[in-house]
UniProtKB/TrEMBL annotation:
Pfam families: SSB (PF00436). Keywords: DNA-binding. CDD domains: SSB_OBF (cd04496). One of its GO terms (biological process) is DNA replication. It comes from the Bacteria. Homotetramer. Gene3D superfamilies: Nucleic acid-binding proteins. GO terms for molecular function: single-stranded DNA binding. HAMAP family: SSB. GO terms for cellular component: nucleoid. This is Single-stranded DNA-binding protein.
Length: 143
């Protein structure tokens, strides 16, 4: 099984390109994903994870996402290699996304955000869920 689920913020606007052979849309962006701990300096570190999105989803991401937006990404991890013009082999690890969820609304003060103005496809997320609220000691967990 190869499944990756991430929540993070875009480090810059997505880059949209089209394959030369058949014009398929492909967008790339990098997600900054906070680590779950604070380092010795009292700072939260982040991992910067490259994401690749294809076809219609690539165009949707390029048209609606901007630097700083919070997104959820679901997909698979891919490792590929290529040779540089100097003959060196380089390895790339990236997430190929099947699903991208917009987890916040675009900043209304941001001019030309590329967002159409409707909230279609954007969900309100409540992160204040108490996971222990409905489970008491001795209750069976359903899995």
């Amino acid at each position: 099984m190869n499944k990756v689920i991430l929540i993070g913020r875009l480090t810059k606007d997505p880059e949209l390109r089209f394959t030369p052979a058949n014009g398929v849309a492909v967008a790339t962006f990098t997600l900054a994903v906070d680590r779950p701990f604070i380092n010795q300096k009292g700072e939260r570190e982040a991992d910067f994870i490259p994401v690749v999105v294809w076809r219609k989803l690539a165009e949707t991401c390029a048209n609606n996402l901007k630097k700083g937006r919070l997104v959820g990404v679901s997909g698979r991890l891919q490792v590929r290699s290529y040779d540089t013009p100097g003959g060196q082999r380089r390895w790339v690890t990236e997430v190929v996304a099947d699903e991208v969820q917009f987890l916040d609304r675009p900043r209304s003060a941001e001019p030309n955000s590329g967002f159409s103005g409707n909230n279609e496809g954007i969900e309100d997320i409540d992160f204040d869920f108490d996971f222990d609220e409905n489970v008491s000691e001795g209750d069976d967990v359903p899995f």
